[in-house]
Structures are given as structure tokens and as C-alpha cells.
Amino acid sequence: MAPPAGRRVGDDFVDDSDSDVSITGLDDETSRAKAKGKGKAIDRNKKDKGKAKAKEQPYAWEASYSRSWDTVQEDERGRLEGAVQDWIARGRRRRLLAPAAAIRRTIIRHLVLVLDLSSAMLDRDMRPTRFDLMLQYAREFITEWFDQNPLGQIGVVGMRGGLGERIGEMSGNPQDVLKAISERHKLEPTGEPSLQNAIEMARASMSHLPTHSSREITIIFGSLTTCDPGNIHDTLDECLKDRIRISIVALAAEMKICRDLCAKTGGVFGVALNEGHFKDLLFELIPPPAQRAVARAGAPGANPAADLMIMGFPMRLPDTSPPSLCVCHSQMKSEGFLCPRCLAKVCDVPTDCDICGLMIVSSPHLARSYHHLFPVKPYAAVMSLEDTPDPSKRCHGCSVAFRDTPATMLGAAGEGMSPLGRYRCPECQNDFCTECDVFVHDVVHCCPGCGK
Amino acid sequence: MDKPSHLSVVIDLSLTQWTLCAQSTNPPGITLQDFLSQLLAFLNAHIACKDENTLAVFGAFPGQSVMLYSSTGEVTTTTAESTDANTYRPFRTLDSTIMSSIAERLDSYDGMTEEAPIGLVGCLTKALCYINRTITTALSSSQGGEGAAASVDPRILVLSVSPDQSSTYIPIMNSIFSAQKLKVTIDVGKIFGAENVFLQQAAHLTGGAYVQVERADALLQYMMMSFLPAPAIRQLISVPTQDRVDFRAACFCHKRIVEVGFVCSVCLSIFCQPVPVCSTCRTKFPMKTLQRLRDARPLAAPPGNAPPRPPVQKNGTTTPARPG
Asked: Region Disordered: start and end of each range (chain B) (predicted)?
């Protein structure tokens, strides 16, 4: 059969693997996530290639299939590096374009991490096994979570053999939590998962917590079945009553009950397409969630989630001070922190004083969450220099020179990318380069021009 | 000590503070001229240590922050420099660029208007942006062979004469956390003025040295001993540092330092006594909590008294000054 007009030679070979653009050093999750095409979709699309970008799609599921390899073009010297860098920068900018308004977030968080330890996790579709990858990402997740939420606590529950198992108690010390999931032989996957048992166990461990902290359950679910003793919708109602937010990262496929659990409790549901996407989905849960507006019949005006907490700020004892017993381990130590109320020595902050029960926090821990409350305004991309009377030649942040002529934009010219490589702060009207833009919004959270 | 080290110096150039410093006799002060000459000797020493060492100097002027010199040549000076056969060329470029940049800016300040607070935060963030760019360019050029660890060892040195500004608390804490992420060490040299609590915390959290200079005329010796060694050698060369760090916070209402504070769970603002409504986010707190807290509190001490602290032997530190 003669190929239809416009079909390019060489289209017979279709790379079915995840990487559609095989360029060294390309770590591009966004393009991989888009190009998860299966054989059948490509077959149909080939016939449509004559038309512009397959606009007519006879099947609905083809709508999500986009050909990302078309947008990568060579520059005038025949190299693809510039296009690749451009693509990566665009991906980063896209994340920054998310609204950064100062919305109310719950800073004090309690999270139960539910790990699927059923036999479905021994599947090798994610390297080396789903189980190993889950453990590795869980470790990174915990480290990063405590970094961003120093006042939070994490507990770990496992789903194995139809039961819920308590793997780690709720603790504010990252080392304790990491230790709980480090013993691999204790976590060998077997049996069937039970969503209801795990959620019930997680809910029970969070029942005594005060209302002003956010209660969350994050489930990493790799199976397609659940083996429950009762009606899981009852559990869902109980969770709604307790105001627990459930988020699920599924590794296999979407299950309606998972989607319902997340939607009704206000959590986030995602199905991981590949390893990189799995990590992204998991790390999306790290920033504090926005506080939901709670409509209450009684007590209008008083926000039930807000409360005044009493906290103590300790003095740090250096190595040179005389040794004394610490109250947490009863070990003789020189260095530690003194509780301001009862003058007991504790080893590490943040913690609750074992003697008087005061929450001991050092001010950097509180300060670590301030950037969520006072975010930096996103910078506007400067499209042309016509409005600026005296444009600065160098980036205000790192003093790198700006390019004079606008660069040609590959692919869609929009998406917030500036052809001049300049990004302007709306407050202080200073221009910054791409690197500084991403750095300021991701890491520093403080604009060098405004000094705020 | 294989890795080249990068040093970013942030100089506090608050004119009022420098005038006070020059006039003070006890402890003996130092004029801006002397300070700059000693600083230039120190910067020359840093460049001389290793050929690949890089340097960036930022000046925190009242109301603005400027990059004065960078070894990658971003700052160009307008005055032509005469060639001098007796001076090593890189030293001469460094000296002349810094002095001319400072002189240009300082001329624009008159003594009439009240001085704006110095742009210390702007300098810190610019130093971090610059370090970030050098790290990313080093990574992208060396990709494919070497490891991902930064091939430079960056550090920031802050030479400060001004007291704390309470409005800079949040930006300085943000800079500290980004420095931790980039593995940048922040050293602080306090030449004149009261103890600076924020910078103390910065030095402590990033593993740097906070040095209170007592003999300002011997400043060069302090700088060579404490700030010249790269972070990698500091395990071998024991650098004097401040162990007693004040981690107490200041309350938002009176800017008093509190040991036991009341924290709003929504916005994390700290109050020294239970208030019915949070002043930052205007959330009302339930009456029960206020009742409970008021009953549980010990009798309020009169303002200005902190409870006595157990004595800690330390080299001549005075009681911490209150910020703001």
C-alpha cells in the first residue's frame, strides 16, 4: 500500500521506550511523561502525519499523545545543546508560573506515610523493583520533608498480608524515621494490601492530635486490589470527620476508590508513569498544603484550625560547658540545649521537653517556614526593551551580561520565556537572568533587588 | 586542599557607623582608610594562596548593594590605571577597582539626610546568586566526567560594623538556608558595634566563624588567622569561633527577646504574652486556649529582665544586645 502523502521516510522505526529524545545528559521528565505512546497510537498517528500535528484525532485517547520530538530543532551550527537547555529552562519556568500568592498554609503537619508492602511491589517494571525504588524515594522524601517542615512529624505504616503494620511511630526526628524504614529484611513484601486496615491504623495514631495541625496520610500504592474486612466507605466518612487529608501515589493504575479517597478528603491523586514522574509526584506533597475553608455552623469568626501554641526557645550549651545528664537518654553529655522553663538539658531540638512538656524550638526552625507565608512575587518575562528607558546591561543578581539581540524561540514562543533572557521583578524593577530567576524563587525566596 | 576556593566578601559601608568607629577610643577604633588598606592586603593574600582562587567583593552601602569587584571581570572601572612595574598586576587591578568603585559611590552621599539602612541583605543574596552561577557553570562545563560535587569551595565573609536590623530577620534566615543548601560557609567579622545575633546564627548554622574583633588596629591578623583558611582545612587549623549562640527569638509586638513565646499556628508569629487576635494574620484564637495559657503562665517578670543564665566560660562576650 502506498504510503499516504507527506509521510516521512524512516517513520517505520518507532522507539517504544521512554526516552524519545536520546541526548546525553537530558534529564527531562516532562518530555518523557508526555511521550508514553504505545504502539497502537503511533500506528494511527502515522496516517495523520500529513496534516498539521495530527489535529484530527479519531480517538479520544490520542488527544493526550503529543510528539515532543518535533519541537526539538537544531540550531544554526547543527547542535542540539541549545535546544535542550532551552527545554529544561522552560520546564523550570513553567513550575514557577504556578500562582505564588500568599495563601494560608498549615505549617504544623503530621503525616503518616503508608507503604504498600504487598507482593505486587516485587514487579520489575520500575528498576530494580518497585519496592526498592519506593524505599529509596521514601528516604529522600523524608529527608526533604523534614527540611521543609521542621515542625512536622512523620509516622510510617505498612500494608502487608491483609493487615496494617506499624513500622515507625510518629516522630519529629528524621533519623528515627529513617531508621524505621532502613531495615530491609523486616519490610519484605508479601501478601495482599488492605487499604482499610492501613487507613484505620493511621487514623488511630493521629486521633489525639490538636486541631490546628494538619493531619495527612500519604499512600504509595502499587497494587490493583485491596482486601478489606469491612466497608471502606465507612472509613472514608470517619476520615472526613477527623479532617484527615489522604493523598495517593499509585504505581500501577488508577482505581476508583483511590481517586474517591483523595477527591473527597481534598488530597492529591497521581499515577506514576515512570521513575522520574514517581519522584515528582511524591515530592509535590512536600510543601505545606493550602488550608481548606472550613464552613462551621457554630462559632463564626473563630477559625477552628488556628491556635496559640506556647513554645520555648532554648540556649545552646557548647562543648566546653561542664557535662551533665540529658533528660532524653540519661547520658552524660557536655553539649545540649536548655529548656527555658525547667532548665532541663535536651540533646536535640525541635522536641518536647521530657520534664515539663514545653515544645522547644529554635528560631531557625520557625524561620524555615516563613518563605511559604511571604513568597517572592514571580518575575515577569521581558519581551522587548521598548518600554525601558535605560536597561541595565547586567543581571542584578549575578552580574552576568544580558544578550543584546533577542534569541529565536523554539517551539511555542509563549510560556513565559523571555527572548532576551531578562526577567523583571514587579516591585523593584530590576532585571535578572534565567539562572537567578529560578534560584531566587526556588532556593532563596528573597529578591536581591527588594531586599525583602 | 585541592579544590580552589571562592571567597565573596561583603563589606558593611555604613557611614555613620564608620565615623563612630573611627572616633571610639575604648575599644580602640579604626578609620575606614586603615580598614580598607588592611582588607586589601587580606584579599591579595587570598588570591596569592592558589592560582585558581576566585574572589568577589560586594559593598553594602546605605540603601543599596553593589558588586565592587569580581575575578571574572564583571566590574569595570572608569579610571585608567597607570602601569607600575613594581606591583604584581592582579593585585594592582584588584586594589584599584575596589578603591575606585567605593570612592565613586561614597561621593554621592551627603551628610544631611538620615542614612538609610545598609543593603546587607541585598549583598548576601547577590553573593549567593553569583556563587550559584559559578557552581552551575562549573558543573555544566565539567559534565560527563567528573562527579557532581561542586569543584569550588565557596564561602562568604561578612565584615560588619552595624547593629542588627529587625526587618532583615526573615531575608537573612532565608539566605542562611540557601547557603546551607549550596554548602556555603558564612564567616562573620564584627569590627565595631554590638553583637549581631542574626549573623551569629548565620555563622553557626553554616559552620563558619564569628569573630568579635577587639583590637581593631590588629584587624589584619584576625582576618589572616580566622578567615583565610579554606573550609576544607578548618578541621586541621582550629579557627576561633563563637560557641555560645543565642537562638532566642524576638517577639513581633515589642521586639523584645523572649525565651518562652506564644506562636500563632497559622503564620508563626511570636508574641510575648497570649493575645486574643494575631496581629499578622488576624486570626482569632479560641478563648479556652487563652484562659489555659494565662493560668499556666508564671507571674510575668517586668520587661527587660531575662532570667539568670548559668555562667558559661567564653572569651569576653558581653550580654547579647537586643535587636531592633
From this structure: 298-324
Cβ neighbours of A374 in B, within 8 Å: 170
Whose cell is 531508621? That residue is A179
Indicate which of B266, B275, B290, B315 best probes the interface with A, i.e. most A CBs within 10 Å of its own CB. B266
Q: Is A412 on the interface with B (CB under 8 A)?
A: no
Tell whether the model's pLDDT for residue A425 goes beyond 80.
Answer: yes
Residue A384 neighbours by CB under 8 Å, 6+ apart: A406, A420
> Which chain B positions have a beta carbon within 8 Å of A364's beta carbon?
173, 176-177, 201, 205, 247
Number of Cβ atoms within 10 Å of the Cβ of B25:
6
- The model's pLDDT over B166-208, given as tens digits with 9 standing for 90+, comes to 778 888 889 999 998 888 999 999 998 888 888 988 998 898 9
Backbone angles phi, psi at A219, to 5 degrees: -110, 130
Q: How many CB atoms lie within 10 A of CB A137?
A: 20
DSSP string, B144-211: TTS-SS-SSEEEEEEEE-S---GGGHHHHHHHHHHHHHHT-EEEEEE-SSS--HHHHHHHHHHT--EE
Q: Which CATH architecture has domain B5-78+87-108+115-140+150-233?
A: 3-Layer(aba) Sandwich (3.40)
The distance of A118 to chain B (nearest Cα, Å) reads 36
Q: Residues A129-153: pLDDT tens digits?
A: 999 999 999 999 999 998 888 888 8
The whole-angstrom distance between B49's CA and the closest CA on chain A is: 25
B220 touches chain A (CB under 8 A): no
Query: Has this prediction a pTM greater than 0.95?
Result: no
| String of DSSP letters for A391-417 | --SB-TTT-PBPPSSPPPPPS-S-TT-
Chain A residues 308-337 with a CB less than 8 Å from chain B: 308-321, 337
Q: What is the pLDDT of residues A80-111, one digit of tens each?
A: 766 666 666 666 666 666 555 556 677 788 99
Confidence of residue B45 (pLDDT cuts 50, 70, 90): very high
Q: Does A209 touch chain B (CB under 8 A)?
A: no
Domains and CATH numbers, chain A: 103-284 (3.40.50.410), 311-372 (no CATH), 376-451 (3.30.40.10)
Q: Rounded to whole angstroms, what are the CA distances from B5 to B52, B153, B209, B271?
A: 8, 5, 16, 43
CB contact under 8 A, B128 and A444: yes
Reported residue count of chain A is: 452
How far, rounded to the nearest angstrom, does the alpha carbon of residue A440 sit from its chain's CA centroid? 18
Interface residue A291 vs chain B (CB under 8 A)? yes
Domain ranges for chain B, please list them: 5-78+87-108+115-140+150-233, 262-296
Q: Is B116 on the interface with A (CB under 8 A)?
A: no
Judged by average pLDDT, the poorest of A132-136, B51-55, B114-118, B313-317 is B313-317
